[in-house]
Structure formats: structure tokens, C-alpha cells
Amino acid sequence: MCGIVGYVGNQEAVPILLEGLHRLEYRGYDSSGLAVCTRGGLKVHKAEGKIQQLETRLPKRLKATTGIAHTRWATHGEPSDRNAHPHTDCTGRIAVVHNGIIENGAELRARLLAAGHELRSDTDTEVLAHLIASAGGADLEESVRRALGAIEGTYGLVVVDERFPDRIVAARNGSPVVLGIGEREMLVASDVAALVRHAERVVYLDDREVVSIRASGFSTTTLEAEPIEKSATPIPWKVELYDRGAHEHFMRKEIEEQPEAVERSLRGRLDARFGIAHLGGLNLSARDLLEVRRIKLLGCGSAYYAGLVGAHMLERLTRIPTDAEAASEFRYRSPVIEKDTLYVAISQSGETADTLAAVREVRRKGGRVLGIVNVVGSTIARECDGGIYMHAGPEVAVASTKAFTCTLVCVALLALHLGRIRDLSPSDGKRILDALERLPEQIRTILTATDQIRAVAERLKDRNDAFFIGRAAGYGVALEGAQKLKEISYIHAEAYPASELKHGPLALVSPETPTVAIVPNDDLFEKSLSSLEEIRARRGPVIAIAHNGDARLHALADDVIVVPRSEPVLDPILMTVPTQLLAYECAIALGRDVDQPRNLAKSVTVE
Ligand code: G6P
């Protein structure tokens, strides 16, 4: 999704802005651009396509120490040079980059056109440049504040004005803006990833705040010009973690990082003496937790699927009725919010607009929400009543991998914590705890099966369609596996609860349509074998992800990808890993852009 970076300091701005844009590429985009304040005034360059297109268009000498830049993901108006940001006013002295949606953009555009302004793009953002230019005000900060008074909608906004080349003004309402504090230089961005090389500390803007940034510091006010003190926090992850290193793709790197990521999710949180999990950030006492009668997990995309799997874990270990719902739908059905329900919002980025809206809906109606979030300081993390950080490290590839597994680890920790307050015995708690500690090593074992999975992918890649099936929590794994395959290889894949196969989709099972089956050797194993029989009877190829040792399974499946056994509630964590590798290897075999699949964005910050 759109990305913003701005720089003011004493170094050359252009390379820093371009580097920042590259760090935001992972979010997904279709065009890019930058504006810098040079001695000869404001200069703007933009290009449709990859950032390289922009780079080839830039003049050799573009000297400036203040500038802003943007990667655009089209919402209003097709991807094109003309619609790429920055946008300028009629005279070309003010440039604006913007994430979000101006809801009254059409009305403002009509008003500006009637007043004689010349608008050159189809975007809602362009109206902002014109409004700021005609807002009056003693300085850029005041002009921006005045212009924003006319705006309805969401924005993360960064502005430069050639009359004030020593500063950048930024504002936030519903779309993230973060300042990076460097050594006599300052940056601003929509995502910490764009700042890491130059800043060690960051300041997160809150909604309805405006900041004026100079090399020497910054000052923040509300939209009503009330001054606000903001405090800086250190950037949590080291800069190297944002690099691809020797890996061909971020996705591969992030799949391989899972053992260490899971270790980090667990670190300091397990107490073997009592078989319990310590979760410092919940902000809920044992008494509060005893009152919980129901749990609802909310998330979008992979975070939702992790919620579906997590609901089984929670229900099994706590015996509290638990379900998961797509956060993107939740608020539209005017949900009943109950005081004794614990809501849990899951989000890797902590910025997904739909998940954030669900959090706000729950809180508006008096409910309590915990966040399971990866990005420290993100909006969802800050707006929840408490939560559990994943500590997965930065996830850059659009297709979520390590955040999915770490979410499940965090849900398991929550389940252990809640379970031990209730009926889970110390010995059962200890068994789960031991199994959690074994996960990193077991994931390492699965990662050694890459050759086998590559061979399976080599056959799967030529198919147009695939089914993924699983039972109970395994159905959530199937959904996530199918999603991964769709997202990055573009092979059509559908997930079904295994028992639903015979109620419709079996009509499409044929030698051309393989099924990936999640088949742990648990109490549903025999049932799963019957589903595989149904498929075999239609000569459908079967790829089973299973535990070792059952000859009947081997007879029914063309391929068996074996994963180590864990506790049954944790098996889904391990069974997910081969589905990630399978999708990755298919995408590679098909020559896809694995880290930036078409039409998708890493963090969807618009509704
Ligand atoms: C987008 C991404 C998905 C991701 C979902 C939720 O749709 O493409 O990969 O699972 O957002 O993201 P979040 O950051 O809230 O976990």
C-alpha cells in the first residue's frame, strides 16, 4: 500500500529518499515520485511502474537537502505518471504526498475548479496541494492546519513548500506517520522500515496531529494549533533485520527465520515450575480473566486464518467458547459487544484499516480488546487495552509466513495463561510448555525437507486448480495454505473442511485437480483417511502433510510430507510450514514475483 518518506537535514536528500522508497517497495505499489526543494525552487519527478523507472528519469544533478517521496497504490485514478504523487498546486511551489482517502474530494475538486484552479490528475490528493496553497496562514504549518479543516477522510500527509525549504510539515488522521530522529537530520515516513538506516529513535504521530520538522528538531500541535509534547522511543529492530541478506527473496528468508522468530515469541514468557505463561502486556488481572465467558479473534487475511486456528487452541485449553471472524466484515453487521467477551485483534503490521476499525467498534461499545501485533508502536498496538507482541522481527514479503506462526505461538501462550487460571492442570500446562519449547527445533527439521517439497511443487505448478482440506484447526491451516498458493503462484486454490468435500466440491476432483490434505495423526485421523479415499476413488492426486508412520496414508497419497509431532493443539503450527514452502517453490518454478505479488499490498491501510 502507499508509502511515504521525507527528509530534512544536511545530507543529499535524493539518495536518502530513494533508499527509503526501496524499503517501502514491499508494501506494494504501482508508481512513485519525489519532490525536492532545490536552489532553483521545487522540483518534482514521477514515474509509473517500479522505482527504477523513477531513478532513470531523475536528472544527474538534483541537489537538495529537503524532500518528500511516495510509492502509490492506486485507489482514485489509474496508475500513471500523472496520478503518481507528489501533487502540486497551480504554481508548483507546494508538493504533497498522501496516504488515505479524502472522502469529500469530489466536492472540494468542484469547488477548486469553480474558483479557477487547474487540476492535473484524477486523484483526491491533488486537492490538498491546492487547498494548502490557497489557505493563507503565516507559515506552512498554519496553511496545512487550515486546509485540513476542510477535509473529511483519512490521511497520512507530508508537505513541502519552496518558500520554507528548511522544513517538512506532516499530519495524520487514520494513516500512520512516524518521525525518525537522526543526528542533525530528521525523517518522516509511513513505516519505520523507511527510517531505520538514518534514525535510532522514532516518534509516532497520533490522529489529528500536525508536525513541523526541521533538521534540528520538531514541534507538534493538534489540528486546532494546541501544542503537544511527544516522546521518542528507540527503534525496536536492528537495521540488518530489514535486509534480504544472501536470500533470493524476503519470503524465503522469513520462512527460514521461523525457528528464531518463534524463540523470540517465547523468550521470557514460560515458567516451567508452574507450567504457566507470563504475559506482561495483557493489562488484565487473573480476576478479570476469570470473568471471560467468550473469546472472539479478529483479523484480516492470514491474520484471520491464524485466528481460526487459534480459536481451536483457546477453546481446547481454556474451555471458553471461542471463535474467529474476519475483521473486515465485523463492524458492518453492527455486532453485539458483550462485557464478558474478550476480543483479540490479530495484525502483523498493526495498521490494517479494517482490523483497526473493528478494534474501535469494540471499544466504542465498551468492550475490551487485546492485540496480537508484530510492529511495536503501531496503531492497533497502541489502541488496544493490552496485548502480546509477536517479536517475529520485520516481515517484508507480502505473503505472511513468520507472523502467522508467531501469532499461533502467541495465541498458544494466551491459551496456556488463561487455561492455567482455570481448569488446565499443572502437568497439562507443563506438557504444552515443553511442546512450545520444542517448536523451533522441529521447524528446523521441516525446513530440511525443501528438496522433497520442490519436487512436489514441480508437478503442482502445472495445474490450474487445487484443493486444500483439513479438519478442525487443520481447516484453518488449509485456508492459509490455499491463500499462500493463490497469492504468490496465482494457481487457483480453494480450502474446504475435509468433511465438506462430499457436499459439493467432490464434483471437481479429477486427475487434473490435486488436493493438499492436512492430516495430523490425531483423533480425527481415521476420518481424514476416509476423505482421502473419496478423492482417490475419483483419481485425484493427493499431497498429504502428515505425521510419520501410517502405511494406509502412504498408500492413499501420492506424496507425504512428514512433519514432527507436537501436542495436538500445536500441530497446526508445524503443519503450516510445508504449505508455505510449497507455495514458494511453485511460485519460483513459475517465475513469479514472490515478494510483490500482483494487485496485493502488505499492509492495507485503506478500507
Ligand atoms: C493484507 C496482506 C495479507 C495480510 C493482511 C492482514 O491483505 O496482503 O498478507 O495477512 O493484510 O495484515 P496484518 O498486517 O493486519 O496482519
What does the model show?
The longest helix is centred in the C-terminal third of the chain and has 22 residues, at 426-447. Strand 26, helix 18 and strand 27 (559-562) form a beta-alpha-beta unit. With 607 residues, the chain is α/β, with parallel strands linked by helices. It is globular. It is 35% helix and 22% strand. Helix 3 (105-114) packs across helix 4 (125-133) and helix 16 (473-489) packs parallel to helix 19. The strands form 5 sheets. The chain has an 8-stranded antiparallel beta sheet with strand order 3-2-4-1-10-9-11-15, covered by helices on one side. Strands 5-6-7-8-12-13-14 form a 7-stranded antiparallel beta sheet, with helices on one face. The chain folds into 3 domains: 2-235, 4-Layer Sandwich (Glutamine Phosphoribosylpyrophosphate, subunit 1, domain 1), CATH 3.60.20; 244-446, 3-Layer(aba) Sandwich (Rossmann fold); 449-594, 3-Layer(aba) Sandwich (Rossmann fold), CATH 3.40.50.10490. The model has no long low-confidence stretch (mean pLDDT 94). The chain has 19 helices and 27 strands. The structure holds 6-O-phosphono-alpha-D-glucopyranose. 6-O-phosphono-alpha-D-glucopyranose binds at residues 300-303, 347-349, 352, 355, 398, 400, 600-604. Residues 300-303, 347-349, 352, 355, 398, 400, 600-604 line the site of 6-O-phosphono-alpha-D-glucopyranose.
